[in-house]
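Rotation project, supervised by the postdoc (A.L.). Task for the rotation student: set up a whole-complex structure prediction and record inputs and outputs verbatim in this book. Inputs entered:
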Amino acid sequence: MSETNKDFKPTDWHSDEMNARIKRRYRKEKTFKAFGLGAVVVAALFLVMLIGKIASDGFFGFFQTSIELDIPFEQSVLGNPREMSPEAFQEQVKRANMLRLIDAAMKEHFPEITNRRERRDLIRMVSTGARGQLRDMILANPTLVGTTKRVSLLASDDIDQLHKGKIDKNEPEANRKVKDKELGWYNKLEEEGRVTLHFHSTFLTHGDSRDPEMAGIWGATVGSALTLVVTLLIAFPIGVLAAIYLEEFAPKNRLTDLIEININNLAAVPSIVFGLLGLAVFLGVMHLPRSAPLVGGLTLALMTLPTIIIASRASIKAVPPSIRDAARGLGASPMQVVFHHVVPLAMPGILTGTIIGMAQALGETAPLLMIGMVAFIVDIPGSVTDAATALPVQIFLWADSPERAFVEKTSAAILVLLTFLIAMNGLAIWLRQKFERHW
Amino acid sequence: MTDTKIAKMTAKDVHVFYGDNHAVKGISLDLHQDEVTALIGPSGCGKSTFLRCLNRMNDTVATCRVEGKITLDNEDIYDPSIDVVQLRARVGMVFQKPNPFPKSIYDNVAYGPRIHGLAQSRTDLDEIVTVSLEKAGLWNEVKDRLDSPGTALSGGQQQRLCIARAIAVNPEVILMDEPCSALDPIATAKVEALIDELKGRYAIAIVTHSMQQAARVSQKTAFFHMGDLVEHGDTTDIFTSPKEERTRDYITGRFG
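Outputs recorded:
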């Protein structure tokens, strides 16, 4: 059989050279494993540091300092609900200057302070939001009028920061936001046990505000949710249908190659470019409402489409051809092949791609800045055409605010955003397992 | 070769091209009811390609071009008026690798009847599924677990499930592309016995690499080589007194 007489030299498996080679191979393998483990550890460390820092900063964002004052609900300010019609009473309460009630309470505590200016500073220890707090209390319970009651009022952001220990009392007065005078008042109230720290539900239920103690994340959360709904409704069907068409029906030629290359390129386009496109087309040409989740959703849908198309195509391609053959061999039409067999099997992959795209859209800020979702909006958006902002934009806005108390609000908002993200990923994992089928 | 019976399927001078590659060169062959025709030959000889022309599975290959005439009951299956979806229901196919759908055993068999609207009611469908599984010799093994996935069966059972699935749409011709090449000898024997039983009702064409299998299950044998149909006739004649040198060399194991 052999065509040559040459033979291999016998191999000496125990030569020194061979032993050294084996040692070298094992050493390389060990080094590689060590590097791999090192990479994982470094990544985990950074993650822990990042989350730890945000969590420790943001934790206090969910809490708020209050000052308890004995508020006299004076008839002279509020009117007498027993002598007026309910409507007239409400009207008077709405117009009444609640600061006078707070001022009166403060006078009880600090009778020694008579200076007009100092009295004003005293009132400023309480948040401007306290006025609304009192108004709501009285409207809910008119019988309070004429009585004096101990009420827990929101402290101003500076007092809040002081109470949380974020303001250093030992710093020279000139560098400190809370002056010595205010510090004295604070200490007095504190000693009387009137300064309390408690969970602050306003942060989770209200919209944005100029005052950190009144600012909430709910408006941005709803804005983000509405935006994502629009994005999903637009990007998912279009993306999946485009992927199915390109993968299963489109002829393979120059044109489809060109489309494929362009979709891949589109996935790499910086997101702000999509923002400019949204600004030019949706606002400039189509005159859709500015700052609206509708426009934000459309813009983010454009940005997400390539991700969904690429992921969907990959998972459609991964469906074994034998399944297509089997269905075709039974006389299934091309559409039946696709919708009865290929798409159900590709679904886990399609959903994973979609959720990755949606998570990307959730964290996107730049395109939303271009279409005006960066505006200061206090109201909770009720529909996709209302002005709204989104979570990452809210974080950006707060991070930019000068007030010290917004630092912890920023971190707290990041925690809310991360929770949103984890919830979405959890949903993705659940859906994937639900649709997963083995063959 | 003298055919007294009328052919179920007839191929006349069929050429197949994949781009520039001339894969099948002018093949004429008849398939008859009540008969198993074995297509044998070395790898790459065009027998599978030819088989896939008979139910137009090659249509899905973009570069594939078919010339010549193939008829089913004297109708040209490449005529534009022929609906390829219906053609594939009439000419069923079993593949080399068992490929049940990742669905229940019941749904695997019921899929064809469902898409072609062959059952009027749930009872009808149950009947079709039962009969198909019985004909495929699988009923006794799976009757208690019709809801379990078809992919959980053993390889041989999966292949018989695929045969049951093909039978369920009531085809006239069944094409089998090396149906036993992924099976062990025991499963192979079961499938072969099944083919033997089925030949009374369908015209069957089977591509096989095993000469013994061709000899065991077929009545007619066609030997392909390099895209040519070298010789075809009664299986006993081909295996005992081949007329062509190449046929003799192949069946005696001298090449291929």
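Student's summary: Chain A has two domains: 60-200, 218-435.
Supervisor addendum: Residues 365 and 393 of chain A are 6 Å apart (CA to CA).
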